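Before relying on records like the one below, remember that each one covers exactly one chain. Contacts with other chains, cofactors or solvent are not represented anywhere in the record.
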Amino acid sequence: MGKSSSKASAGSRTAKAIAAQTPTRRRPSAVLVGTAVAIIAIIAVVTGVIVASQSSKPSTAAGNAVPAHAAGMGQGYVDTSSATLVAGAPTVDIYEDFQCPVCGEFESLVGATVRQLADAGKIKLVYHFKTIIDGNYGTSFSLSAANAALCAADAGKFEDYHSVVYANQPSQEGAGWTDAQLEGFAQQAGITGTALTTWTGCFTSGRYDNYVRSTEKASSEKGINSTPTIYINGTEAQLQTVGTPDAFTKAVEAATS
């Protein structure tokens, strides 16, 4: 009994000693908890605003940009957006592939007339880029040329670049152009200095690649799978009826309301 009591007393003293050495944990005050919750709420709100702001901005990452004169992905590039249209001017939609030989012939024969009418505001000219020949040959030349032309558009040189590409169209369908050639066309189109540096960055990054893919997809879904395909005020114009400057002009005049 004596030993048991002695052990109990020693155990009690040990427990008290441990209790004295163990720091007492204090419960956080209501003020501190409330402050922490308020700070977390503020951070969440600010983060949400930032994310919402970023998500509302159009994507300008390489390959995902939309040209300034196109309404969005899959929509045509409006080449006459800066021209003042005359009353009743018809819309001319041209679906083209830069590697297409017949597109090259149309550009050679009627291209100057198309641009004259566009510059005079007598037509609203809209280009839709196709990459049919890339698909036929497993290449990306049509895509690269269209991206390059749209990069030239950023420098105000779309028409000049457009003409130079067709003037240098390879005689063999599917042969395409090297990147060095497409870069040389930019200089031939009159892009120099800092504008050329900007063009090069745009071209090498493939800034408008996905836009071009989207115009191919959108037109294919409409059943347009040959080039050039031309619509005047929504009605397809047979190439044989608009394949000369005079015939094209008459077709436009007939469609002017």
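The chain has two domains: 2-56, 77-255.
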